[in-house]
Amino acid sequence: MFLFSKIKLYLYNTSGKLLKQLTFGNYDITKVIGFDEEGKNIFFVSTNPTPMDRQLFKVNLKSGKMTQLTTICGTHDGTLSKSGKYIIDRFSSHNNPGVMYCLNTDNLKTEKISSIENPFAGYNVPTVETGTIKAADAKTELHYRLVKPFDFDSSKKYPVIIYVYGGPHSQLVQNRWRYGSGGWEFHMAQKGYLVFVMDNRGTSNRGLEFENVTFRNLGIEESLDQMEGVKFLHSLPYVDSDRMGIHGWSYGGFMTINMLLRFPETFKVGVAGGPVIDWKYYEVMYGERYMDTPEQNVEGYEETSLLNKADQLKSRLLIIHGDNDPTVVWQHSLQFLDACIAAGTHPDYFIYPGHGHNMIGHDRVHLHEHITRYFDDFMD
């Protein structure tokens, strides 16, 4: 049998004895897609050689020889045939909306099965750029994307919205179609905003050390890294530093309010959806995995709580919550409102009746209209 640790593969016998380590190196294994029919090779998806990409590999269980099956830069995912001789390789990259190949795992020859046409062909659409900046530790490279209006003019000044998630199990910037940018980012760019997205330390697919830096102190190192992104934006001559906004949902909602309170002079506007406010109110499975228990980590829970920082709110802030949210329960934002009332600060608040952790159906259109209106109303 084998052990899949998300970072490395290990081979064990059925008695539980470790026989050998199968993969080595500074990369993660993000998915195991199967074995060949004879059980000689295991096939998987990896961040080797760069976390921006996903490539397909196989490793021989006996010899330990590893073979890279795909080499084109981008994001590959695979479905393995029963024999292990073929993989259906689904591939996309920043300039490729999607191609499907049949890959021979022995000679690595490919045959194209289908492809997706560029849905934006013939239209003027925003551009998406990527790059890296140094984290707050001054050594770790962080990947970002920057969405610009299609008629971008470097001689003008543009307002900027930082879209943030920032928590475990996330990677927003990746070499897939348009670097993973979504429809709302395009919409805001079409309206004349720049949209900046960066994966800080603590997010996934960069190894244990990268993700573990936030342990017991969620929101501290992440905010310092995001501020390095702010400094980078300030260095760009076409960024209007007086008109900076921030938006995120769930962990991103926590990060939005966290950034506003820790750096109260930085942002003019923030919109936080379904935000975690205090980790002791969050689900045990997640909260105690990354924070330990409140009894074990008294200082960490105190430092990361947003309740004791409500007096630092100086920006316009809209908090959005579903009144039936089973993930980030309503208690979070209600307690923050109570703290703001006591502190004399004034967030805005909007409830979606009957919705859970996010809005679905027609109400989701209303949600994005509402978020957009808030930035339009208060960024000028």
Q: What features would you describe in this structure?
A:
With 380 residues, the chain is of the alpha/beta class. Helices cover 23% and strands 31% of the residues. It has eight helices and 19 strands. The strands form four sheets. The protein has an eight-stranded mixed sheet, sandwiched between helices. Strands 4-5-6-7 form a four-stranded antiparallel sheet, with no helix packed on it. Strands 8-9-10-11 form a four-stranded antiparallel sheet, with no helix packed on it. β9 and β10 form a beta hairpin. The N terminus is likely disordered.
Model regions low in confidence, pLDDT < 50 over at least 5 residues: 1-5
Order of helices and strands: EEEEEEEEEEEEEEHEHHEHEHHEHEH
Mean pLDDT: 96
Largest sheet: 8 strands, mixed
The shape, in one word, is globular
* Helix proportion range: 10-25%
Features:
globular, alpha/beta, 8-stranded mixed beta sheet, 23% helix, 4-stranded antiparallel beta sheet, 8 helices
